[in-house]
Specification:
Helix content: 55-70%
Strand content: under 5%
Structural class: mainly alpha
Strand order of the largest sheet: 1-2
Protein name: Cellulose synthase
Largest sheet: 2 strands, antiparallel
Number of helices: 38
Shape: flat
Distance between the termini: 59 Å
Length: 725
Amino acid sequence: MKSILVAVVLASAGAAGVAGLSLGVAGNPMKGLAYPDAGSDEAQDAAPAGKRARVEFAQLQAGEKDARPGQTAEAAAKGANAPAVDESALRYFAARGDTARLNAEIARLRALYPTWTPPENPLAVPVNEDRQLEEMWALYSQSRYADVRAAIAKRQKDDPQWTPPADLIERLDVAEKRAALVAASNTGKSEEVVRIGAETPSLLTCSDPDVLWRVAEAFVKTKRVQRAKDAFGYMLDNCEDAPVRVATVQKASTVLGYADMQGLLARERTGADGVKEFDAIRGDLARRFVGEGDADPTLTVDPAYLRIVEKLAADEGLASDALLLGWYHLRRDQNAAAEPFFRKARAIEDSASASQGLALILLARKLPAEAEDVMYAWRTSSDQAMETYLAATANLLALDPLVRIEPKVLNRIAAVTLEKKHPETGEQFGWYALAMDQPRTASEWFSLVLQWKADYEPAAYGLGVARLRLEDLAGLAAVKQAWAGRSERIARLGEVDTSEDAAPLHRLRQPKVVEAEHALPVRETVVSEHAQVAEDVAARPRRVARTARRAQDATVNCRTTQDPAGLSPAGALSLGWCLMEINRPMEAARAFEAALAGSGHTRSDAAYGQSLAYLRAGLTADAAVAATRAELDGSRTAELQTAILTDRAVASFRARRYRETIGFLDQRRQFHTEPTDLMVLRAYSYKNLGLRADALRLFEALGETGRQDAIRALAEMRTEQKMRR
């Protein structure tokens, strides 16, 4: 097992490269990117980043071969002239299984000693004869930097002639700087994060992406967005590790705006199979961009992203996707486009956001009765929801010609109006009572409104009309006196033909139709607390591997970068679930890795979570390994195996390995019934293997269910049969 670990680390250290990001002092633009030499050849110095990484990897492979028995005399001579490199830390990191730090240490030593070849087995690095120094290295590997300093100080006190190795001091300085940077980041001291990064460029390498992410985030928080873009862009230009590249885009999307993200996405690479590297997160990026458009009506999001979210809404049936589209269109006064999405969201899962959006559209269409009915249940969910509801009530009462409102509805509108002391709806109640020939009730409503808002002229005018209808001339005179010099129409009440003043309501009242602002309400989280999160496997025939965030994780704050290594196993587990919920699977996988240090349910949950995280990132092989790292219950095992086998079947089909596709589908059947979309995959595999009778039989069965793709395939096969005859 350890030899496998070493091989993986050596390969990744060589492939990742050790180029560092160079930061200028605060206020200066970002400097150029510095690449340490991979060798002494001048041609390598001038080589572009991609070629340089390949040169380093090639040298690493050569070094591994040279370390084996049977090396040539020339290689042995080279080894004799190799620089003296303290490899003690490698042994400690390898012994602890700390692949990340072992990887980073190899990259660091290669940068310092270009001709140095990593040992084939770091566990075989000789133990230092100096036992005290050996203990210092052990403390260093455990991140106990203060204890290392104390041990150095004690030894120097006991032995003034002793000098600690420069390499140990240098590494200790860098490690302490990293710890300080992480602490500053965790406490929101962004200026300090930038300062430490500028002072310690050796930290800013692809081998430690977490530090680069923290520095980039600090740039954003200190209003230096361009430098944040440079940092993220540097990682996409130079870092080769696929999960790191995907996680970098995910991290950038949480701190950069839509326009800034487009430059980073332009750096996307396409694999040999034609698949773009960010396809697995394209849907979530589209959701984020459309959501940004919801908040900013001046932002025009590329229609391609709207189409992606529309497809997600159709395929996955999440209310949150329909809401994103509904608010995007509503904020741009595209009501006809917005309404179907709000109705769809309410049909899937009624919510304040969906109801408010639909109510605003209904008000614009002059359908206040439906708007009131839609909003009543959600009126107390927010101030904006209440404003929308009250706008609907005022407009309902103000309809002309008059509509009869059911007593139940009138009573609930009256109760809310009295509770909120809403002048506009109270005024319209007065006019409605007049129209129903209830002038005394109308007078009471208008008087009540003036108690709520003494300078509300429409209510004073209505009160005058009601008293005129009641032939309360003294009361009318009191109103006219109170408003003398402030309202011409109140002053003229009773001076014209009384019959005109007492005419039907639609000739007298001038109701103010209340408009509700298209303010963006506080929408629910994209994934609600009780909704399960679908693990997206790019372009799969169906959604697989679901998980739900646990209630106790709700207090975890994972919007800012945290180092899971500094948390307890339970804390790291909570961080992992939190990161999964905001769709940062690679960071979640690292958090679950730290949680695997726990025991019992914590370890089981960590293995389950890490497997889900790798599945979401499209790393099926890693997901399979993670699923074996702890004992899982039967349902979780079946869930993960189903997801993994689905992934493998789809990947095999894309690679045109049809017999292998059928094998994976057969295995999958042992855990779950085969859905129709995978049955289509099976039928095409039969066809491509020449098993036409089996394919026809399956397509016929699928065609009877109404699947259009199966019907088309069946028609094509029958046409081919006729042509062969």
